[in-house]
Design a protein that fits this description.
alpha/beta, Rossmann fold, Cobalt-precorrin-4 Transmethylase, domain 1, 11 helices
Length: about 400
């Protein structure tokens, strides 16, 4: 596997106090915030997501054993998400506000709000952007049709598509050109799936889940290959492939894994801690496919209960009743400040013993989109060569 797929397991105490910094938006009363300005495509329930009301502090509960938190690692931002967010920040520096972004740059409501506060305008479609403006394509990628629409409106387009998604796009184009029919395993309506299918629309069929693999009809051909959305559950994807191959023995595998290293690593980490957990809390937004999968994986691998939250204020007191061990992780589009807040709130309930369980090391970085690799004067911007930790 690519970067960080394996690594020696480690156990380390975590002191969050020096890292706990509340962002400006977390300090603002929810009543002063307006809804996010986009509907995020076909997911109707996200038309107006709001920061939840603050609740009273979590209270300590009585348990017979020791209270502890197992903090999964790796967690949070992956290289593709970091690249996309930095790309928007750099575009703001270079061009000034407003900078338009098609769809959510990454699937995290906190990140979207932070960028909106800096002058980013999120839109559903290119047609909503004034001609000649600056637009960033999200990390989930777009179809060639969207690229053409931007050109037709004379937009300065910056492509922040994750390079691992771009790899799948290229595979779709390549295999379609070789007269293969592609079975794309993914979730209908997800931006990444729409973008990938748009690269080979005539030769691609979507398979949503294992059950659909049992009934999907495909053209009669010996040239049959599967590709996948990058943020799926590894186990469910392999089950889907198994069922497809039972029906189509000639089905070929892609040349390399499509599910990204970060998705796999976060799932491996949660598999490791879940058998010991009475409760697993996953920090991530409801439209984040990889965050939702982490809840499912936690339950499948032994956690007695698991919940997804955007913010620590969503944690309910009743979840903690009788709980001794809590697992905490976050999806690949979640900034660490939200995990810090979660740990701080759980500390109010007596969960101050925090141990980090690390199953892999990650050091992968992606260069920024080519449009942002030089400053306004044409000089190479050295900070564009990698992630946020590069100076």
């Amino acid at each position: 596997m690519d970067q960080g797929a394996s690594g020696e397991e480690s156990l380390a105490a975590v002191d969050i106090a020096p890292r706990l910094r509340h962002s400006a938006l977390l300090a603002v009363a929810p009543s002063t915030l307006v809804p996010v300005s986009i509907s995020n495509g076909s997911v109707a329930t996200l038309e107006a997501p709001l920061i939840p009301e603050r609740r009273d502090k979590l209270q300590p509960t009585s348990v017979t054993g020791n209270k502890r938190i197992l903090l999964a690692a790796p967690r949070g931002y992956c290289a593709g998400v970091d690249r996309a967010v930095i790309a928007v920040e750099k575009a703001l520096e270079r061009y000034g506000a407003p900078v338009y972004v098609r769809k959510q740059i990454v699937h995290n409501i906190h990140v979207v709000r932070e960028l909106e506060s800096q002058g980013v305008i999120f839109v559903d479609e290119v047609a909503e952007v004034p001609e000649g403006s600056n637009i960033v394509f999200s990390a989930h990628g777009v179809s060639p049709m969207v690229v053409q629409q931007a050109e037709d409106r004379s937009l300065n387009a910056i492509d922040a598509t994750c390079p691992l998604v771009t790899k799948v796009h290229r595979e779709a184009v390549r295999f379609s050109g070789q007269d293969y029919h592609i079975l794309l395993i993914g979730h209908e309506g997800h931006e990444e799936v729409e973008g990938t299918m748009g690269h080979a629309p005539e030769n691609t069929s979507l398979v949503n889940d294992p059950d659909e693999a049992d009934r999907i009809e495909v053209p009669v051909t010996e040239n049959l290959i599967w590709l996948s959305q990058t943020t799926l559950s590894v186990d469910e994807t392999m089950e889907t492939v198994r069922r497809l191959r039972a029906r189509f023995p000639h089905l070929q595998d892609p040349p390399s894994d499509d599910i990204c290293y970060a998705t796999q690593n976060r799932q491996v980490a949660i598999k490791k801690i879940s058998p010991e957990c009475d409760l697993v809390i996953v920090v991530g937004s409801p439209n984040s496919s990889n965050s939702v999968r982490l809840v499912e994986v936690a339950l499948e691998y032994g956690a007695k209960a698991s919940y997804r939250v955007d913010y620590a204020s969503e944690i309910k007191q009743e979840w903690l009743e009788g709980v001794e061990t809590i697992g905490v992780t976050s999806g690949a589009s979640v900034p660490e400040i939200l995990v810090d807040q979660t740990l701080a709130d759980l500390a109010d309930a007596g969960f101050t013993d925090v141990e980090e369980i690390r199953t892999a090391e990650e050091d992968l970085q992606f260069s920024l989109p080519k449009e942002l690799r030089k400053d306004a004067a044409g000089n190479v911007d050295r900070t564009s060569l990698g992630g946020r930790n590069r100076s």
